[in-house]
Amino acid sequence: MADLSQPIAYAVAGMDSVVVQPEVVFGRAGDRELALDVYLPSDEGGGPWPAVLLVPGTTDPGTMRGVRGWGQYVSWGRLAAASGLAAVVAEHRSLTEASLDQLAGEVTAALAWCRRQGPAFGVDPDRLAVFGVSAGVPLALAATMADPGDVRCLVCYYGPFRVAPRPWICCGLTRRRSRRCSRSEPGRTGRG
Description:
Strand order of the largest sheet: 1-2-4-3-5-6
Number of helices: 4
Strand content: 25-35%
Structural class: alpha/beta
Number of strands: 6
Radius of gyration: 19 Å
CATH class of the largest domain: Alpha Beta
CATH topology of the largest domain: Rossmann fold
Number of domains: 2
CATH architecture of the largest domain: 3-Layer(aba) Sandwich
């Protein structure tokens, strides 16, 4: 198995001096508490800061329980905070433990925490971004679409999603008469 504690290669000054508020409980899934880690810029008295909610993908349940401590999420949290943003790394259950709808609900709860309790930690609820990674992309997309409110940006990073259930319908075509959609046609998805 890969070493999930390895940080990302990119670094900026100040990543080691950010403020980290670990293991903040934001919800429950059955008898399990769901937690998040908050990363804040080190400048005291600053804030509120624009914030990014990082939504991880999914793997087996045992590995998912440590997702907030994976090197990439720790690094991204520190990178965002050192760059002047608050970062919130939220956990959710594994896809083998819950349905996609339940997992999307857990991400929606994390987004609601950013809006309601985040300000007490320095999060600006009027300047939020959601960053879905891998299998976290459909969860981030569903949570943002359920209540876009004050989300200013949604990043879908190498994850699976389909905006159109059958892309060949984008131009009113059937699968048999498929052709490339022209750029001028409304609803173009870029696939024929």
